[in-house]
Each structure stands twice: as C-alpha cells, then as structure tokens.
Write a structure and sequence with these properties.
Layout: E1 2-6, E2 11-16, E3 25-29, E4 32-36, E5 41-46, E6 50-52, E7 55-60, E8 66-77, H1 81-91, H2 96-115, H3 120-125, H4 127-143, E9 147-159, H5 163-350, H6 353-372, H7 388-410, H8 418-424, H9 426-431
Antiparallel strand pairs: 1-4, 2-3, 2-5, 6-8, 7-8, 8-9
C-alpha cells in the first residue's frame, strides 16, 4: 500500500526507492507522486528565490588598496531534471539557511578572487561590468550545484584609508581644471568668432542700410505719389459719400416723417378709442350706479312717504275705531247704568221701609270691611289722651258721621230709619 503526495510549484518532491528495490529517484514539481509505505523515501527541496548579500571586507586590489565590497544576489534551484538532480545531491535534507550559506561562501570566494585582479578605479567606475564579471565567473561553479544566479549587483564599495575619497577629489580637480581650460578656450574662440561675426554683420548692415535708404527713398516717393492719388480718390469718394449720405438721410427723414404721421394717426385713433372707453367706463362705473342709486333713493323716499301716509291713515282709523268703540262702550255702560238705576229706583219704590233698611244693613258690613281694610294690618291702636271723656267724644263723632257717608255712597239716608235714629239720638248717646 502507499500514499499519494502532492507538491506546489515552489517545491520539488523527490521520491526514491520503488517496489522492486530500485534506487531510481523521481522528481516532481507542482504535481503529485505515488510512494510505497516503508519502501519509498519522500523528501522536498525548495524552489523559491533566495536572496544573498555577499560581503568582502578589506580585500586588496591589484594595486594593493584594501577595499570593502557588498553586493546582492538572487539565486534559486534549477528545475531541469539533471540540474535538479545535482541540487538534490548537494542540498537534499538541508535547510534553506544551510543552502544559502554554501552558495554565499562560493559567491564571496569568487568575488575576492576577482577583486584581486582589478584596480580600484575599474571597480568603482564600472560597477555593472564588475558585477557581470563576478556573475560569469561564479555561474559555472554554482551551476554544477544545480543553482542558477538570477541577478548579481554591487551594492556598495568603500575603504578605510579614504582612497576612494581622494580619487574622487583628484578626479574632480582634474575635471574642474579641464572644464576651466575648456571654458577659457571657448570664451577666447567665442570672442574671436564674435568679433568676426560683428565685422561681417556691420559690413552687411552698412550695405543693407544703403540699400534700405535707396529703397526707402523710392518707397517714400512711391508713397507720395500713391498718397496723392489716394487722397484724390478719397476726396472724390468722400464727396460722393457725403452726397449719397445726404440723399439717404433725406430719404430716411421722409420715411421717419411718414412713420411719425402713421404713428400720430394711430395715436389719435387710440386716444379716440380711449375716450370712448373712458366714457363707457364712466357711464358703467359712475353714471349707471348714480342713476341706480338715485332711483333707489327715489323709490325708498316714495316707499317711506307711502308708508307714513298709510301708517297715519291706519293710526287715524285706529283712533277713530277706538273712539267709536269707547263711545259705544261708554254709551252701552251708561245705558246699562241708567237702566240699572231705573230698575233700582222702581224696585226701591216698590220696597217698603223695612226692605230698604234690610238692604242698607246688608251693605254696611261690606262698607265697614272696605273702610277697615287698612286697619286689618294694625296690631293695636293706642289713643293718647289725658281725659277719658275725649275718647268717648271721638267715637260718638265717628258714629255721627257714618250716616252722611252712607247717604253719599248709596243715596240712602240712615237718619230716617227708626232703629238707627234711636241708636244715634242724643239721649242714647248720653245714656251710654
């Protein structure tokens, strides 16, 4: 029995040993492989890029100057079967750190060897050439280990005796000197050339000025001639223009007058229509409402007048009717009273003295109640008098006046009744 093993594109799978005891190795990159239990051996090796930083300190160059060089290299395991086999032989079972250490030592060894064959100037001035040389020299050796150098660059070059600084200063001074000499020579040549150019320029300028003067004179003469013709033509054109402008202005004025006449006629028509409209508006807003108001006031006045006349007539009729009714009522009452009195008189004539007396006596309690009505609300009457005979005299006086009052009210003379005569006689009063 066995297992299926897979691997990504950044690793290589190495399967060694088979079912028949074979030592053949199988390399798988980014795929899968079958391995037998207890027989096949499974190992992996990285295919990722490894970054190295080789550094050679105080290495003497061809001139004996000690310098320090640092670089950066990108390397990886090659994936061809044969080269991958070389890499597996060298690094299978090792960690990435151990692989990087072996390759770094190889690169630093070649770097030291190449530094000893070059001068400082060659190394410093052409770093790319130096890096290419290192890569070309080291590539076969690391290639036999199944390693490919993807890139190699020089990072820094420096020394402890300031040789590179002095070299830079010397080179800078030489460059500055050559530059100053070049500037001086250039200025000299420029001055000479400038003077020659100025002379040629002045010659050409004088010749050109002469030609320009001749041309200018001829030009001025031509211009004067042309100006004369132009002015003549301009004067003629101006006169023609002014004449035509006057004619056109006259036409425009005539047109404006006609327009003003038309506008005036339209204005008069509009004003007449406005007057008519104003008259109609006044008639509609002032005259008609005024006439309506006047008619209304007239009708109201007529109505008030008729109302007052009818009211007066009705009041007069009312008063007349009331008067007639009151007169008829008074007449009927008078007639009724007269008839009553007549009947009473006839009745009284038929009655004897005894009957009259009985009637009077029947009426006396009623008279007494009416007379005593105000006194009914009086709890007691106190007569203040120091003499006893004074009270008796007052009572006698009241009784004496009673027949007169009855006679005035009823027409019956109580003094003629025998019983009352006895009651009111002086003898009875004295006896009492």
């Amino acid at each position: 029995m066995g297992n299926c093993h897979t691997v990504g594109p950044n690793e290589a799978l190495v399967v060694s040993g088979g079912c028949c005891g074979s030592d053949e190795k199988t390399y798988v990159v980014g795929g899968w492989a079958w391995a037998w239990w207890l027989i096949s051996d499974i190992q992996r090796i990285t295919l990722e890029i490894m970054t190295l930083q080789p550094k050679c300190e105080d290495v003497e160059t061809a001139e004996g100057v000690a310098i320090t060089v640092t670089g950066v290299a990108q390397v990886k395991v090659m994936t061809e079967n044969e080269l991958l086999g070389y890499a597996c032989e060298q690094f299978l079972g090792k960690s990435v750190v151990e692989i990087k250490s072996v390759i770094l030592q190889t690169l630093e060894g070649h770097l030291r060897a190449i530094l000893g064959t070059l001068t400082v100037e060659q190394i410093y001035q052409d770093r790319d050439k130096f890096a290419t040389l290192v890569r070309e020299v080291a590539a076969p050796d690391v290639g036999r280990m199944g390693i490919e150098i993807l890139s190699f660059t020089i990072k820094d070059v420096y020394d402890k005796v300031e040789y590179l600084s002095s070299l830079g200063k010397t080179q800078t001074a030489a460059v500055q000197r050559d530059a100053d000499i070049g500037v001086a020579e250039a200025e000299r040549d420029a001055g000479i050339r400038e003077a020659e150019c100025k002379k040629e320029m002045m010659d050409v300028k004088f010749l050109a000025d002469t030609k320009m003067a001749d041309s200018k004179r001829e030009l001025e003469m031509q211009k004067a001639s042309f100006n004369q013709e132009v002015n003549t033509k301009k004067a003629e054109a101006q006169l023609a223009y002014e004449l035509q402008a006057a004619k056109e202005q006259q036409k425009i004025r005539l047109e404006e007058i006609e327009i003003e006449v038309v506008q005036r006629k339209k204005q008069i028509t509009i004003e007449e229509k406005e007057i008519d409209r104003t008259d109609k508006e006044l008639i509609a807003t002032v005259k008609r409402p005024a006439e309506a108001e006047a008619y209304k006031m007239q009708q109201l006045a007529e109505g008030q007048k008729i109302k007052k006349v009818l009211t007066a007539q009705a009041e007069a009729e009312k008063i007349r009717c009331i008067g007639e009714a009151e007169a008829a009522s008074i007449e009927a009452v008078g007639k009724a009273e007269a008839e009553k009195m007549r009947l009473k008189a006839e009745s009284y004539q038929q009655y004897g003295e005894a009957a009259k007396t009985a009637l009077v006596l029947e009426a006396l309690p009623k008279i007494a109640s009416k007379v005593a009505a105000p006194l009914s609300k009086t709890n007691e009457i106190v007569i203040l008098s120091g003499e006893g005979s004074r009270v008796t005299g007052e009572v006698t006086r009241l009784l004496a006046e009673l027949p007169v009052s009855v006679n005035a009210l009823t027409g019956v003379d109580l003094t003629k009744i025998p019983l009352l005569q006895k009651m009111t006689s002086p003898q009875c009063q004295t006896a009492n």
